[in-house]
Amino acid sequence: MNALTDGVFAIVLTLLALDLKLPETDESILALMRNDRRVFIAWLISFLLIARFWLVHHAVTARLQQCHVGTLALNFCVLGAVTLVPFSADLIGTERIAEPWSTIVFAGNVGLLSLSVGLLARHVLRGPYLLHTDQSRTVLSRHRSHHLYVLPTVATASVLLAFVQPYLAVGVLLAEFVVFAAWSGWHFQTRSRLDRTGPLASMEGSQ
Questions:
Q1: pLDDT in tens, 16-50
Q2: Which H/E stretch holds residue 117?
Q3: How far is CA 19 from CA 39, 107, 132, 166, 199, in A?
């Protein structure tokens, strides 16, 4: 399952790069890149989106000791939403963010992908014998709550804002990405600090 998932993510990342094309004109390369900057911005947003969800998917499935048909079905839902990212990102790049429906499709894609990941995390938490007994449920619970409730709500707000302020709608999604990255980094540093100080504290206590 993980081998298939990694392959799909890798292909999607490659497809994103294939959309980076410059028209064949006599203008300088810098001028062409400046004129088509929205395509590169869409690539960057999409690349970060795919990378973020690959990391979350890895965090969820790394705690599995086995899977069954339900696990595979939910994983295919995640992959289905992932394969739509190049299409929704291309809409932003070609139709521009100011076009409401391009932003709506992209935000809807983000919400669908988030729901799929959240349902997978909830499935792993609830499924009997799926989770390693020595694995903490904290990370899974955090991803379940965030991707099942928080990010879909943000995506819905972005869809509604797209009709009024398309740029603000995309800004809301980007703000969620930044907050999530900072939040995940803080949790990682806290856990690493506890892992380093835990054994020392135990040794000092025994002395």
A1: 877 666 656 666 666 666 666 777 777 888 888 89
A2: helix 100-126
A3: 8, 20, 41, 22, 50
